[in-house]
Amino acid sequence: MKMSKDLMVKLYKNMVRVRALEEKIIECLFAGKIATFYHSGAGQEAPGVALGALLNDDDYLYYQHRSHGINKCVPKGVDPKLIIAEHFGRATGGAGGIAGFHYAKPELGIFGFAGLVAGEITLATGAAIACQMNGRGQVTVSCFGDGATGRGTVHESMLMASAWKLPIIFFCENNMMAQWTHIKLTHPRKEDLSEFAHYYGMPSATVDGQDVIAVYEAVKPAIERARAGEGPSFLEIKTLRYAGHVEGLPDYSVEHQGGMRTPEEVEEMKKRDPIALYQEVLLKKNVATAEEITKMNEEAKAEMEEAMRFAEGSPWPARPDFDKLLYAE
Question: Are 180 and 244 in contact (CB under 8 A)?
């Protein structure tokens, strides 16, 4: 697939913006500036960035807890200031500072996500019904991890989407770990989770999630198919995450389950870092110079530093705002 230079540069910029925002949030977490917690998605930048580049403003996007959705919402157009301010609990955040990291941006088709793994998949399926009824060529993307495929809501939603030919993409980011449990325990007889789609009569693909171009090339036809009224698709994006389940806690998969993810294995994973791999592509294809790449990296870090200052300087939510959430006028 031929890609323009502008698009290739945009993909890189968004990957380093996502990584920089995540690093800034983790820095603030350990500095005591964030009252909640953080589920790192370092290593999983490519899937969300490729997806965000293909969605329109009025398409619906339901993100999941990994990386708190920043790898998808930032590429779709959400201002990092809104995201980090919500993590800070400030009134300028994407949920008014009262939801931790459950931010939203309705004008971009982002309504947050459920507090339960796979809980938002049924909501996404409902949004896909709305897309179908609207008749404007909108699509919905429901994002979830490999661990969510064990929940009934995934399969109920896939069954309904297939029966009604809903314009939805089931976007499974398989990072091989459901919290602290390796996929070889949760799905011991299934090598590719994309096999699930066959039971529901929908097309599927398994994609290298460390290759942003490969993800883009897989997502594009799935979205085009949905826009054309041809029904749902299932994409399994095989990707890697470097951190444990939650920042600040030990990686129990290493310490208590027989070394299913040893430190050596994690270091080996990092040799396929999506940003480093894509840098090589940009340089080889003469899309960007080393100096231009360095500049984009520095700009991303500066942007997130400014987002942090914005959050720090923002007001706390006012008491009347809490009342509005509880009582109808």
Answer: yes
Domain around 88: 5-322
> How far from 265 is each of 18, 240, 261, 269, 271, CA to CA, in Å?
24, 11, 6, 6, 10
Tokens 């198919």 belong to 225
Best-predicted range by mean pLDDT (33-37, 111-115, 281-285): 281-285
* Interval 266-271 mean pLDDT: 87
Which residues contact residue 146 at a Cβ distance below 8 angstroms, ignoring those fewer than 6 apart?
A: 172, 173, 174, 175, 176, 177, 178, 183, 186, 187, 193
Show the tokens assigned to 284.
């080889």
Q: Is 49 part of any domain? A: yes
Beta bridge partners of 204: 234
Specify the number of domains making up the chain.
Answer: 1
The rounded distance, in Å, linking the Cα atoms of 46 and 273 is: 10
Rounded distance between C-alpha atoms, residue 46 and residue 54, angstroms: 13
* Amino acid (1-letter code) at residue 275: I
CATH number at residue 128: 3.40.50.970
Residue 328 lies inside a defined structural domain of this protein: no
At 204, is the secondary structure helix, strand, or coil? strand
The pTM assigned to this predicted structure is: 0.92
d(CA 59, CA 55): 6
**Displacement of CA 263 from its chain's centroid (Å):** 24
Q: What is the DSSP string of 208-245?
A: ETT-HHHHHHHHHHHHHHHHTT---EEEEEE----S-S
